[in-house]
Input
Amino acid sequence: MEGSNPCFLKTRIADLPMKRIACQYAIVRFMPYIETGEFANVGILLWAPKTRYLGFKLLRKKHARITQFFEELDRAVYLKTMANLDAELCRVQTMLQDQIGEFGDNDREYGLHKGLFRELIRPRETIVRFSEQRAVLTDNPEKTLTELYEYYVDRKLSPRVPPR
Output
């Protein structure tokens, strides 16, 4: 599947009891020329603190619109940037899983996950930026991640307004 990350968390949301889960998400933006402020949406990062689900989906294969929009940019720069971001987010997922394995899943108020999402999306001086933090309630964070990706990155605009 386009943009799916291979290091998916072992605890699947489908295995959890059904109830509305509060999630935070941010749009991943590619902005190679900071001085112009132009960017393209290239992914979604979604965090469900209660379940400790951290999911992301990045535009890795269908990058023609990105390289056409930023004509002067070597496509290798985009591909390498996305590969690096993918690797970093996989590393964070692994750290999160390791912490759960080492310390258990009982203490949700302290530890690595506290402030994790804000730290991931905080502004940095890089060509990958994140939108402001947004929130959504969902029964299924994995499905919502896909829906948000389709809306903001694939631009499959549905009649309903995306969750905020």
